[in-house]
Amino acid sequence: TPYLSREIARAREETERALPILLAAKLALLVATFALTVLLAAVVIDDDSLVAVIAAVVLATLVDGFSMFVYGYFQGREAMGFEARVTTLAAIVRALGGIALALAFDDLGPVVAWILGIALIQAVVAARRLARVASPGRSLWRRHGAGRVHWHSVLSMGLMAIFVMTYLRLDSVLIGWLRDERAVGLYAAAYTLMLGAQIVPTMAATALTPVFARTHARDPDVFESAWHSGIRLVLLISLPIALATTLLAGPLIDRLYGAEFERSADVLALVIWICPLGSLSLIAQAALRGARRETWLTAVSGACAALNVGLNLWIMGAAVVTVVTELLNALALVGLCLRDGIVPVPRFPVVRVALAGVALAAVAIALGSAPVEIAGLASACAYVAVLAAT
């Protein structure tokens, strides 16, 4: 999927000729992944109903993966309105329907079936749009393999995705193995909020990825401008979120989850810093991918995955280890960008942001006993006001 997005941005006509073989590869990977996952679940788990639920959820996730493949094509063309409309509608319908079914039946079966059904409908809509836009008036499968595919790039990007998923999510699995299910729940409560905080930076990186691919070696000024703008945008958003969340972690956890999740506050105060670090990594990844340096990306991600697993098994501090891993990942990727001369040192208003951060922290601490909504909003206003004033 990331390969398709980049190559459509770089060489649309040639990549469209390769769409049939890319689509066949994607579908083959989805089928193989589903079969392997269900087989492993059946071997490890004795509960048939649980295996069925896992199979349905995995199938829904993989079907969503096909939809993401289609959206990758449109991302490469920098035409993301279709993806925005369909995914927004699907998310709302999926969530509301799932909640209603959970309340009505108090059982996972109908909820999982609903999730799978929405995923299938979204995939059909996406496939029809792809066929209509990328191959008007003819079958997508015609001229099979006519375009060139750089399979080493596909492999590198795929391995990178696996490594990143490993060092960002394996900690929850290790907590379950080495501790208990309650510890997993406490950790996941905080981690979910961090993932929500990273939505806007991820949006920015997604929008900039095809820009980097399109302008590298063709329009260096635009490439450099996208670098500076991307770094500035994601850090201006993610840094105050991380700082405010750290200072208000206790009231925030209490408001959203209840007093029994009190221990999640310490985890949240740490893992929220993945947001600015991960944001920096995302922009650096987009620049390196646009410059066709995916081999370096894979090497760094693999090293981070190995480091994360090793440190988790050694010191069992999942939150600290994941933040440290993301810090090293960000430093390595930005360092690669600067070392190879792909981009210059990013321009960033350090003094202004530092002053705004001090104002945010002062307001958050002063209003620590107020409702968290008021403290959070007032802190955000102080941050924006200082940025504007300076």
Give the helices and strands, then pairings.
Layout lengths: L1 H9 L1 H6 L1 H26 L3 H29 L4 H25 L2 H27 L16 H28 L2 H17 L1 H17 L4 H28 L1 H9 L6 H8 L2 H17 L3 H22 L2 H22 L10 H17 L5 H18 L1
- Note the beta-strand portion: under 5%
For the CA atoms, what is the radius of gyration? 22 Å
Molecular shape: globular
Uncertain runs with pLDDT below 50, 5 residues or more? none
What is the ordering of alpha helices and beta strands? HHHHHHHHHHHHHHHHH
Helix/strand/pairing category: mainly alpha
Count of DSSP strands: 0
Describe the structure in your own words.
- The protein has 390 residues and is mostly helical.
- It contains 17 helices and no strands.
Provide a quick synopsis of the model.
The protein is mainly α and 390 residues long. The protein has 17 helices and no strands.
Q: What key attributes describe this structure?
A:
390 residues, mainly alpha, 0% strand
